[in-house]
Amino acid sequence: MSKIRGRSQIGALLAGAALLLTAGPAGAGWGALNMPEGVTPISGEVYNLHMLILWICVAIGIVVFGTMIYSIIRFRKRDGAEAAQFHESTTVEIIWTIIPFLILVGMAIPATGTLITMENTEDPEMTVKVTGYQWNWHYKYMGEQVSFYSNLATPVDQIQGQAAKNENYLLEVDRRLVVPTDRKIRFLITSADVIHSWWVPDLGMKKDAIPGFVNEVWTKIEEPGVYRGQCTELCGRGHGFMPVVVEAKAPEAYREWLQKQKQSAQASNGNAGKVAQADK
């Protein structure tokens, strides 16, 4: 009778675990808990790698804890079971050495391929230099004579709790970084004061901005849209006020935007020259 009751308990536990695993992805909160799949080939690779490792860990957990629970219930001392002894067993030592080794190799091969792809910044179609400051970002389009600062645009009354917070609270800027879709873009990332970190989850990008160093990272955005991130390095009291907003436009729309920026920069330089001459 006790054996039957024990088997029914094991069955209930396994059924509960299976229900949890199958119900999770379909649940409304799964997307909020899991990492975003993103809109670039790199973010897709990172997401797939993350899911592969996750399910390997889930399978290991099921096997290990399932075996433990089954053994605890099936071979209870109360039922007269005697504990098996595995001291100095060569067979057991070989098994628990080879199996983890094969699991680690299975994880390392796809992880290494993803890392190599992420670090391949060769042959970019355009380059943007990103410089972190306390507390804003400066973007310079290399070879285009276009550069600007990107500052937090959240109203002060929202930050001080005197107004309702909107959807993009602390995630909006006065000037977005505009880039084209379907182009390999290299980012040169550095800092002018302390260590920052430029992070945009949907693009699968996160790189530290370190004074005196220039780090490289690249992306190729497949879908037009607005993608948001933040500084993820504790860089001072204004650390939470350094949002990153990237707007990806179709190539033709990007060229029009870039041309307007150049004309605006030339007009500003012309006005500055006139003021300088008037001062003389």
Automatic annotation (TrEMBL):
InterPro entries: CcO_II (IPR045187), CcO_II-like_C (IPR002429), Copper_CuA (IPR001505), Cupredoxin (IPR008972), Cyt_c_oxidase_su2 (IPR014222), Cyt_c_oxidase_su2_TM_dom (IPR011759), Cyt_c_oxidase_su2_TM_sf (IPR036257). The keyword Transmembrane applies. It catalyses: 4 Fe(II)-[cytochrome c] + O2 + 8 H(+)(in) = 4 Fe(III)-[cytochrome c] + 2 H2O + 4 H(+)(out). Residues 261-280 are annotated as: Disordered. Residues 261-271 have a biased composition (Polar residues). It is found in: Cell membrane; Membrane. Its cofactor is Cu cation. Residues 123-260 form the Cytochrome oxidase subunit II copper A binding domain. Its EC number is 7.1.1.9. Residues 1-28 form the signal peptide. The keyword Metal-binding applies. Subunits I and II form the functional core of the enzyme complex. Electrons originating in cytochrome c are transferred via heme a and Cu(A) to the binuclear center formed by heme a3 and Cu(B). PANTHER family: CYTOCHROME C OXIDASE SUBUNIT 2, CYTOCHROME C OXIDASE, SUBUNIT II. This is Cytochrome c oxidase subunit 2.
